[in-house]
Design brief:
InterPro entries: Arg_succ_lyase_C (IPR029419), Argininosuccinate_lyase (IPR009049), Fumarase/histidase_N (IPR024083), Fumarate_lyase_CS (IPR020557), Fumarate_lyase_fam (IPR000362), Fumarate_lyase_N (IPR022761), L-Aspartase-like (IPR008948). Belongs to the lyase 1 family. Argininosuccinate lyase subfamily. It holds the Pfam family ASL_C2. The chain is built from 19 helices and six strands. The chain has about 450 residues and is mainly alpha-helical. It has three domains: about 100 residues, Fumarase C, Chain B, domain 1, CATH 1.10.275; about 250 residues, Fumarase C, Chain A, domain 2; about 60 residues, Ribonucleotide Reductase Protein R1, domain 1 (Orthogonal Bundle). The strands form three sheets. The protein has a two-stranded antiparallel sheet. It has a two-stranded parallel sheet with strand order 3-4. The relative contact order is 0.10. The protein binds arginine (ARG). The site of arginine has 10 residues, from helix 6.
C-alpha cells in the first residue's frame, strides 16, 4: 500500500518528482482559509444529521478551528507529499485529533471540496474588485464634474474630429466601468452557488443537508445537479472574461494618458508619485504605471485564454486538467485589483492643461462639420455643403487660415448663404454647446450626467 490518503489500492510508491508534478499545494494553499471554512460547515452538518456522532463532529470542528488559528498566526506548514490543500489539511487534522479526523471526508469528495473552496475564494474577493471599481468611478466623476466645460479635441482615427469636453470623455469611461461593475455583480450571482454535497459526481447515499451547509457558508443558492456542481468552472471563466474587458478599458485610457502626457500633446501631467525617471536621461518623466497597466492587460487575456483552452472539450465530470484553473484566477485577481487602484491614484493626482487642450481645437478645422451643418440648415443639400466646406478646408490648409479666420467675403464666395453669424457658430465652445442631443457633449448635458451618475454611486 502507498502512503497516500487514497493509497489503498496501490502497491508501488510514486517518485518524488512525479508527486511534484501532480501537486498543487504550492499554489492552492491560497485557499487554506476557505478549505477550513468549508470543512467546518461540512463537519457540523455531519453531526447535525447524525451521520457521525455529535461528539465526533465537535472534536473535528474544534480541531479545524485550532488549525484556523494556526493558519492566521502563520504557523501551518504544508507538505508536497500531501499533494493539495485538501489532503494537507486532513493530514494536519489527523496529527492534531487522531483517527477521528478520518470521518470528516464522509459524504464528500475532493471534487466537490475543491469546487467549494474555489467558489468561496472568488466569492470573497469579487466585492474587493467591485469596491475598487467604485472608487475609480467616483474619481472619474469628480474629475468630470470639474472638467464639464473643459474643451478639447475629440478624435477618430486619432485625427482631430470635433470638439468635445474632457468631462464628456471621462464620463465615457465612467459608463464603461459601470458596465464592468454590473458584469462582476452578475459574476457574483454565478459564484454564489454551493457545490458541496455533489460528492464525487453523483451525489451521496448519506442523508446530508445541503441547505444547512449553504447557510453556514453564506451561499445564496445550491447547485441542483451534482455533475454540474463538480464540472462547472464558468464562474472562474466569467471572472477572467470580465477582468479582461475591464483591463481592456483601462488599457485604452492608459494609452491616452501616455500619449497625452507626451511633449507633442502636453494635455495632462501625471503626478510625480505615479511617474518614473530615467537612469540616463535626466529630463525624463515616464508614465510607467499607465504602461504597466497596459502591459498587464495582455497577461490577463493570457489567463482567460489559458483557462478557456484548458476547459475546452473536457468530458464531465472532474478531470485533473481542472487543477490548472486556480493559478490563472489567483493571478488575475491580484492584477486587476492593483491595476484599478493604481489608476484611481493616477487620476487623483492628474494635472490637466486646459489651455493646451483648448488651443488644440483652434486651428485644426475641427469646426468644418459646423459649417457644413450651417449650410444644410440654409437648404443646401448636405452632400453639396460637405463638398463646399471641403474646398474651403483645402484652401485654408494651403494658406494656413482656419475657417473662423477667413473673411466673410471669402466665405460668401464659396457659398452665398453664409452670413456674419457664422463666426459665432464656428467657435469650439459653440460647437460643443449646441450638441444638446441626448448623450451629446454639450456642457449642460455633461453636468446633468454627472448628477445622474453621482446618484448611481450613492445608491450602490
Ligand atoms: N488538487 C485538485 C484540484 O485542484 C483537487 C481535486 C482532486 N480530485 C481528484 N479526484 N483528483 O483540482
Amino acid at each position: 500500500m502507498s502512503d497516500k490518503l487514497w493509497g489503498g489500492r496501490f502497491t508501488a510508491k510514486a517518485s518524488e518528482w512525479v508527486d511534484e508534478f501532480g501537486a498543487s499545494i504550492h499554489f492552492d494553499q491560497k485557499m487554506a482559509a476557505e478549505d477550513l471554512e468549508g470543512s467546518i460547515a461540512h463537519a457540523k452538518m455531519l453531526g447535525k444529521q447524525a451521520i457521525i456522532s455529535s461528539d465526533e463532529s465537535a472534536q473535528i470542528v474544534a480541531g479545524l478551528e485550532s488549525l484556523q488559528q494556526e493558519l492566521t498566526a502563520g504557523n501551518l506548514t504544508f507538505d508536497v507529499k500531501n499533494e493539495d490543500i485538501h489532503m494537507n489539511m486532513e493530514a494536519l487534522l489527523t496529527e492534531k485529533i487522531g483517527a477521528v479526523a478520518g470521518k470528516l471526508h464522509t459524504a464528500r469528495s475532493r471534487n466537490d471540496q475543491v469546487a467549494t473552496d474555489f467558489h468561496l475564494w472568488v466569492k470573497h474577493r469579487l466585492p474587493h474588485v467591485m469596491s475598487a471599481v467604485t472608487d475609480l468611478q467616483s474619481e472619474l466623476l469628480s474629475l468630470a464634474d470639474k472638467h464639464a466645460g473643459t474643451i478639447m479635441s475629440g478624435y477618430t482615427h486619432l485625427q482631430h474630429a470635433q470638439p468635445i469636453t474632457y468631462g464628456h470623455y471621462l464620463l465615457a469611461y465612467f459608463n464603461m466601468f459601470q458596465r464592468d461593475y454590473e458584469r462582476f455583480e452578475f459574476n457574483q450571482k454565478h459564484t454564489d452557488i454551493l457545490p458541496l454535497g455533489a460528492a464525487a459526481l453523483a451525489g451521496t447515499t448519506f442523508p446530508i443537508d445541503r441547505e444547512f451547509v449553504a447557510g453556514e457558508l453564506g451561499f445564496s443558492d445550491i447547485y441542483h445537479n451534482s455533475l454540474d456542481a463538480v464540472s462547472d468552472r464558468d464562474f472562474a471563466l466569467e471572472f477572467l472574461g470580465n477582468a479582461s474587458i475591464l483591463m481592456m478599458h483601462l488599457s485604452r485610457m492608459a494609452e491616452e494618458l501616455i500619449l497625452w502626457s507626451s511633449y507633442e500633446f502636453n494635455y495632462i501631467e501625471l503626478s510625480d508619485d505615479f511617474s518614473t525617471g530615467s537612469s540616463i536621461m535626466p529630463q525624463k518623466k515616464n508614465a510607467d504605471f499607465a504602461e504597466l497597466v497596459r502591459g498587464k492587460t495582455g497577461r490577463t487575456y493570457g489567463s482567460l485564454l489559458a483557462l478557456l483552452t484548458t476547459m475546452k472539450s473536457l468530458p464531465l465530470a472532474y478531470n485533473k486538467d481542472m487543477q490548472e484553473d486556480k493559478e490563472q484566477v489567483f493571478d488575475v485577481m491580484d492584477t486587476v485589483i492593483a491595476s484599478v487602484k493604481i489608476f484611481t491614484g493616477m487620476l487623483n493626482g492628474l494635472t490637466v492643461h486646459e489651455g493646451q487642450m483648448l488651443a488644440a481645437t483652434q486651428d485644426d478645422f475641427s469646426n468644418a462639420t459646423e459649417l457644413a451643418d450651417y449650410l444644410a440648415t440654409k437648404g443646401v443639400p448636405f452632400r453639396e455643403a460637405h463638398a463646399i466646406v471641403g474646398q474651403l478646408v483645402l484652401k485654408g490648409i494651403q494658406t494656413h487660415t482656419p475657417l473662423q479666420k477667413m473673411t466673410l467675403t471669402d466665405l460668401q464666395a464659396a457659398a452665398p448663404q453664409i452670413e456674419a453669424d457664422i463666426y459665432q457658430i464656428l467657435a469650439s465652445e459653440t460647437a460643443v454647446n449646441r450638441r444638446t442631443s441626448l448623450g451629446g457633449t454639450a456642457v449642460t448635458n455633461v453636468k446633468k450626467e454627472v448628477t445622474r451618475n453621482y446618484k448611481i454611486l450613492e445608491e450602490r
